[in-house]
């Protein structure tokens, strides 16, 4: 009987201990979860208060790439030569049109002012002449004011299709294009067309300019035609 009583008492004690263990374990688990929640909350607040690491890293990479690009972007030799001198220079702008040219003086500028103009106009070509003046060149696919007001296509004394300032009889040749096969033109074109060409064909816009060139390129002499074909290729 004593043995059974002892076993019963041990089982009762074990049940009480087990309840105590479960109670203590549950409390400990709740405490641990609460502590972890606070830790995570603090970490999230810190992360939200600053830029994400991935964005910071991306920004660093982008800045490094931009810096590397600036270091490898070499300036033209004339810009480097200009930068080494503090001398003020006369700056010219030469506008080259499909027909005609116009030149102007932008002023006497410091090297920094010249470089600022160059960087603000990436399509311009620049250079220094023998006197140290700066020349900018701008290509414009249009007719100059002079060509619009007084430009004529005609035949010069050597039989070339040329562009004149004023009628061809004034012989102010602005530009020579190619030698014409006059015999073929005389046999192929009406007489009034040839007369018109000798007297001068007035042009007032870029479309007329290109149309005259295209029409008479069909009558270019053979050497000139070969040269034009090579340029097209």
Q: Can you tell me about this structure?
A:
The protein is an alpha+beta fold. Among the domains are: 77-143, Ubiquitin-like (UB roll) (Roll), CATH 3.10.20; 150-232, 2-Layer Sandwich (Alpha-Beta Plaits). Helices cover 55% and strands 24% of the residues. A hairpin with a 1-residue loop joins strand 1 and strand 2. Residues 50-58, 64-72 and 226-232 have low confidence and may be disordered.
Structure summarized in a few sentences:
Keywords: Membrane, Transmembrane, Transmembrane helix. With 233 residues, this protein is α+β, with helices and mostly antiparallel strands. The chain has helices at residues 2-48, 53-72, 77-83, 111-120, 145-150, 182-188, 191-199, 206-217, 222-232, and strands spanning 89-99, 101-109, 125-128, 134-143, 151-155, 160-165, 173-179, 201-203.
Distance between the termini: 120 Å
Number of helices: 9
What is the N-to-C order of secondary-structure elements (H for helix, E for strand)?
Answer: HHHEEHEEHEEEHHEHH
Strand fraction equals 15-25%
Structural class: alpha+beta
Overall geometry comes to: elongated
Write down the CATH topology of the domain at 150-232: Alpha-Beta Plaits
The fourth-level CATH homologous superfamily of the domain at 150-232 is Bypass-of-forespore C, C-terminal domain
User: Level of helix content?
Assistant: 55-70%
Per CATH, the architecture of the domain at 150-232 is 2-Layer Sandwich
Low-pLDDT stretches are 50-58, 64-72, 226-232
The overall strand count is 8
